Amino acid sequence: MNIQKLMRQAQQMQERMQRELAELEVEATVGGGMVSVRMSGHKQVTAVRIDPEVLDPQDPGMLQDLVLAAVNEAGRKVDEAMQSKLGALGGGLPGLPGLLG
Length: 101
Known about the structure:
The chain is α+β, with helices and mostly antiparallel strands. It has a domain at 23-91: Ybab, Chain: A, CATH 3.30.1310. It has two helices and three strands. It has helices spanning 3-23, 60-89; strands spanning 25-30, 35-40, 45-50. A three-stranded antiparallel sheet has the order 1-2-3. 8% of the residues are buried.
């Protein structure tokens, strides 16, 4: 196996993953649709939607918990999507099974 060819393939895979991260966007909804968060592949929150019904001045903790849960779920979805993509790319480096899986 030519090590330069292998390194070139690894670099191409890394560049592809960076492009896919930039294009990835996930959404997580919690509380029966009361709070929704959109997140980029770089784990930047790009949007938050809060149903006005959840805005209870007597119980701000509920809204805080829902936002926290939605952000954490969106982050988990980004991780899951990237693991799935990495697993699919794992076969891209011949002779090194399991390198990315």
